[in-house]
Design a protein that fits this description.
Length: 316
Amino acid sequence: MKRKINYLILLLTIIFMVGCSDIEDASSTNETKTQEETTVNTDENSNTDEKTVEETTADTNSEKEEAATTVADETVEEKTPHETNDELFSEYKLIEVDGGDLSGHRKPKVVVDIGYGNREYWAFTNEHGQLVRVIADEITIQDDSSEPVKSNGRYYYDEAKVPGVESDVLDEGHIIADSLGGVSNAYNITPQDSTLNRHGDQAYMEKVIRDAGGATNFEAIITYPDTETQIPSSYKYTYTLRGNEIVDTFVNGNPDKTNESLGLTGSKSSESNNSNTNSHTSSDKNGDISSVDINGNGKVTIKEAKEAGFSMPITR
């Protein structure tokens, strides 16, 4: 009997020990699984965080690049014309005046576009309201087929009444003619000697540019005898024609009287003039202008050509 009881106690002890071992194994297994799951979750969270950081960084960089590009574009769009205006209009106020405005009044220290249509011809006044400078990168001649040219061959039927044009011997002279794309307001008109404007150096210069189909680097400098008058004393034109720079300076007066006062009228016989013309024509064929270029600056003005014996107009 005692032996049976001992066996029973031993059996129960063995069963108890086996059960405890299983519980410990299960607990250990659960702990291991929990640790593994925690590790996996931690790794996944770490990867997610890294991805988030990478995406955030990429988005930030992208936004910075877009912002920088936008700023750069705005800088180019805004700065370029601003710099151009600073260079061109630094001391002047830019205003708009209708091309056909007949008022003869000019505002002081302003710049006005006197080009018809899309042309950009810039006229400048000084502090006295005198028109002193006109410039154009390119002169585009009038196009009768595409522009609303009037029956008189002009863009407008009349020109601005600048003080002085009421004189019988002074025309409403364009600095840049209608035929060259200029308007007719006071910022393109000066009182100019009628003969000079219609038959003299002014008319000749306009014809040369028309025949060439336009010009580039155009500049007109207008000079006055005092600060009160609006009637110029002289003009200086500089422009490039077929790659050649041309400079022409002339006084605002009757060219016949001007030439006579300079001793250029009747000073040479017809035979002498013909001889000179022939010799200059021969020189011209060889490309030699030294005999005509009196001041030796490599440029021939109309005055120099006349003094050398050429008759007007010169076509070559």
